[in-house]
Amino acid sequence: QQPRQQRGATMPKAKGKGRRQKYSYNLNRKRLYRSARRRAAPRIACSHIRHAWDPTKSVARNLADMGLAEDPNKALPIPKKLQLGMEVDSHGWQPEKKIVQKPYVVNEMEYEASLPEKKSNTLSRDLIDYVRYMIQNHGENYKEMARDEKNYYQDTPKQIKRKINVYKNFYPEEYKDFIASLKQEKMDVQ
């Protein structure tokens, strides 16, 4: 007699694996595809790093080539003596010099960081017109301003004062010129 396994040498299947996979209508395929793509290759926000990035290299290798630190704790370690609260000699620790293959990345980032920050927030044209109208008609009388018919938002005297101070801080030269022109108009009237 021959053993049974030699005739039809097939391994038994795991339970439940023989059925074909049914299509799941409950899954959002578009979202799954997008999230898988994001996980596979995350978007690098810094354009300088993104353009110099080599997808064939590892994260550590890419950052080392650019002269950037992968782990700040390894790049600038805290000496043991300093951790214990003791003073460190002038020759405490020496960072090892690494060869930077893409120094232009760091140079571009340093240049961009050295540029002055742009003042992006400005006041709306409506607020500027509102403040100028109030100052022109009422001077520094905030209670009168609060009772004015053009006070659409029903601001209190303190709120109006705050808005005028914001205008003064944003446009100091424009405010001085505006007050000077008002004084000139008063002089011309008299």
TrEMBL record:
Please cite one Gene Ontology biological process associated with this protein: ribosomal large subunit biogenesis
Name the domain of life this protein comes from.
Eukaryota
**InterPro entries on file:** Ribosome_biogenesis_Nop16
Alphabetically ordered keywords of this record: Nucleus
Task: Mark out the compositionally biased spans (Basic residues).
Answer: 14-23
Q: Where in the cell is it found?
A: Nucleus, Nucleolus
Q: Which GO terms describe its cellular component?
A: nucleolus
Similarity field:
Belongs to the NOP16 family.
Q: Which PANTHER family match?
A: HSPC111 PROTEIN-RELATED, NUCLEOLAR PROTEIN 16
Species of the source? Hypotaenidia okinawae
- Where are the stretches annotated Disordered? 1-23
Q: What is this protein called?
A: Nucleolar protein 16
What high-level taxonomic lineage is stated for the organism? Answer: Eukaryota, Metazoa, Chordata, Craniata, Vertebrata
Provide an example Pfam family for this protein: Nop16
